[in-house]
Design brief:
homodimer; 270 residues; alpha/beta; TIM Barrel; eight-stranded parallel beta sheet; two-stranded antiparallel ribbon; 12 helices; 44% helix; globular
């Protein structure tokens, strides 16, 4: 099955565009979990259990696991295995390196962790992305316009009168021969999201920046979805994970995921 | 001690600008090592033992270790610990993410692995790099112009008549308030390396692309070093590691590192 099909299946089954970002920080999980053998995994299990009928995807960010060394890798691997088979796992890694090396990252993410998709940095160009695209059933979501302040440093630069992020979107579209490319566009740039969706009408777009980063839900849905009101993967991490730091954290996470799902669906075309 | 001092000390002691890239691939190491408990680490130990008087730095590339999962992380961690204290360890990770997440990568690389420097991707701008710069004794080597074919896709784009990689070099220079920034420039672009060295006269420049990628030694040294013939970190990975795949691989690696060191020194100003 192609990634887009798997995504659409999960999204339709759960009537949801919500991606739950598993940026699990041991400093922020409820204290009572610290007595568990693997607190990070124990936390993730509870979050997954309480949101798996509300999510179209899960997105663990590798940085949070790597900060815990090999132990973190084990937590991440167990988490990826624990996510229900029908829900896509997006490994947020923002990798990019020469072909020889990118092949190793692809192996780590698609074979070792068995992720369904990966986020990739475009700066090194096509041959840094193509090793990920050799996996036909997987997906490379390429950074286009990111949600952070620093996006303005280079991504908004005008190249022949056109912003760099548009050139990235066009290039990624040209790399999409196997139908396994996508884009990452921050919810903090609604006008630009609209323009990018026009360029890449059929690509899945991962949209972080809702919640802690204050992107607007209505414009994100309006401009980020395709003509069927689909293919936008709207991520919330901290907003869901840390909705409560008490024993009821999983119920609070569920409530927040439900609230976000419904707020999004209010603005979907179909 | 600042990174640049540590680098210069090692470089002067060993009279070398050679960085040994530890891109250790279990598929390519000599067969007799596969019976070791940790073949990757056993290989790295031998390589380090045979080159530590010839190198100014070691540069493990994280992709090769991550492809082996948590086991690879353990091999990497042991390798970083094994490298002699006086020789800087550059973790080639090409990371870049929003501040909240970049802090976790910085923790992974500078605290968990105890690296001295890291390679960083500039696409997400200043706030994706600055968490690495909060570590004053460490160094962030920012991708400027990479050695691969795909460098042309975006890095050579003209922004107001100036190539993007020059804008990156200028920005990085402006971020260098604590004196802990550097650049990555491929040896495959000698003319551009010359221009970048003019812009960033005092920054360390990591230069991959010698050897397997066919960059020219003479122009790399001539254009990549500072006015004292220093601060270029000229990396060779596959050329050294896989000089032989027999039992004498460590001696062959030493011979190749020695040959490269001397070829480089032939062209150094001082």
């Amino acid at each position: 099955m192609r990634f887009v099909e798997k995504l659409l299946n999960a999204s339709r089954k759960n009537n949801s565009l919500v991606c739950v970002g598993l940026d699990t920080d041991p400093q922020r999980i409820p204290r009572h979990l610290l007595k568990e053998e693997d607190p990070t995994f124990a936390f993730n299990q509870k979050i997954i259990d309480s949101t798996s009928d509300l999510a179209c995807a899960y997105k663990p960010n590798m940085a949070f696991y790597e900060a815990q060394g090999s132990r973190g890798w084990e937590s991440l691997k167990k988490t990826c295995e624990y996510i229900p088979e029908e829900i896509p796992v997006i490994i947020d890694a923002k990798r990019g390196d020469i072909g020889n090396t990118a092949r190793m990252y692809a192996k780590a993410i698609f074979e070792e962790l068995k992720g369904d998709a990966v986020t990739v940095n475009p700066y090194m160009g096509q041959d840094a992305v193509s090793p990920f695209l050799e996996y036909e059933g997987k997906c490379a979501l390429v950074l286009c316009l990111t949600s952070n302040e620093g996006a303005k440093d280079f991504q908004l630069s005008l190249v022949d009168g056109k912003p760099l992020y548009e050139i990235v979107a066009e290039k990624v579209l040209s790399w999409n021969e196997k139908g396994n490319c996508g884009l990452v566009v921050g919810a903090t740039h609604p006008e630009q999201l609209k323009r990018i969706r026009e360029i890449a009408s059929t690509l899945p777009i991962l949209i972080p920046g809702i919640g802690a980063q204050a992107g607007d839900v209505e414009s994100t849905v309006k401009f980020g979805t395709d003509e069927n009101g689909e293919l936008a993967i709207i991520n919330s991490s901290r907003g869901i994970l840390y909705a409560s730091q008490q024993e009821d954290f999983d119920q609070a996470a569920r409530n927040e995921a439900l609230r976000l799902r419904d707020a999004i669906n209010l603005h979907r075309g179909k």
